[in-house]
Design brief:
Structural class: alpha/beta
Number of helices: 11
Oligomer: single chain
Number of strands: 12
Strand content: 15-25%
Radius of gyration: 20 Å
Shape: globular
Largest sheet: 8 strands, mixed
């Protein structure tokens, strides 16, 4: 359904995303994980044609079925965006129009892409608000964004994204602002929509618990590159890249009985302007050697994972 090939995104002075290849099949959920500043959101924005100056797509292709999205003009892209492709943004309060009622914003999507009358669209907006767990939907559709909490605004964004039953959903930290009960409700709703329509989902998250619950495959991103790509079960049971292993070691386990400090990955993600030569993770990696000054290719392992590391698995 979606194929991203050789995607590089950045400014004139630095690359934020480097040579990313990803693909999604109908009905599949691919989770994109990594620390803040790794390039996850920029990958999503580039796929949706929503990069903003000075950031731009510098190279690469994005295909949706047989349509080359990067070759479309803004008007052509707008016909697809919101109808067949939908994005749930990380900061809903900033993404919503502050001077329009939230119900009107959801209804507008239905009027433009489904040809509904305003009355029909508003009735559907009330139904969508109820689906995503917004209390008192007939009253809330008349609210402005500033009258709602951050979590409520996030649910409005999710309702807007699901309004036209899109074939591809890109969710950038879609459930971060929600309490765990509402988060579980939204995840069930998204999975239900996938089962009904065959929609694919690219889901960006920091929450490995969410990844374990919904992902078919997982792409781990570090400093603008994909460093590991694997089926979810394989990634959790036998992570190959030292960065992936570090992320999984940072989790709090239910089985833990004695109080202890959580593991942590020392250091921080390098800025795009200060990215080291070779493997960008080598400055934080306990396995690093002179070999790591050479950039590792994302190569297949015998376990089925694709890993960009000179010393994958348990090798020293």
């Amino acid at each position: 359904m979606l194929r991203i090939e050789g995607l590089t995104v950045g400014t004139d002075s630095a690359d934020l995303v480097l040579d990313v290849d990803l693909e999604l099949a109908p009905g599949e959920t691919l989770c994109l994980v990594g620390e803040s500043g790794c390039g996850k959101s920029q990958t999503c924005l580039a796929a949706m044609g929503l990069t903003a100056h000075p950031v731009k797509r510098k190279s690469g292709a994005v295909r949706f079925f047989d349509t080359e999205l990067t070759a479309l003009g803004e008007h052509e892209f707008s016909d697809i965006r919101g109808r067949d492709l939908a994005m749930i943004f990380q900061d809903a309060s900033a993404a919503l129009n502050p001077v329009k009622r939230v119900g009107d914003q959801v209804a507008e999507v239905l009027c433009v892409h489904r040809g509904l009358s305003r009355r029909e669209a508003m009735a559907r907006a009330v139904e969508l608000f109820e689906m995503v767990g917004i209390p008192q939907p007939p009253r809330r559709v008349r609210a402005y964004p500033h009258e709602l909490s951050g979590g409520m605004c996030q649910r409005v964004m999710i309702a807007m994204a699901l309004a036209c039953r899109p074939r591809l959903i890109i969710a950038d930290e879609a459930t971060t602002a929600l309490d765990v009960t509402t988060q579980a409700q939204i995840l069930r709703l998204l999975k239900s929509l996938q089962a009904e329509t065959g929609a694919a989902m690219l889901f960006v998250t920091h929450d490995l618990g969410v990844v374990a619950e919904i992902a078919d495959r997982v792409a781990v991103m570090y400093s603008g590159r994909i460093v590991e790509l694997a089926d979810a079960d394989a990634l959790f049971t036998a992570p190959q890249h030292p960065y992936t292993q570090g992320l999984l070691a940072c989790r709090l386990h239910v089985s833990s009985t004695a109080p202890a400090r959580l593991d942590a990955i020392e250091g921080t993600v390098p800025t795009p302007a200060s990215r080291p030569q070779g493997c960008a993770f080598r400055m934080r990696c306990l396995r690093a050697s002179e070999t790591c000054h050479r950039l590792p290719a994302l190569a297949p392992m015998g376990t089925g994972q694709l890993v960009a590391c000179h010393f994958p698995g348990g090798a020293a």
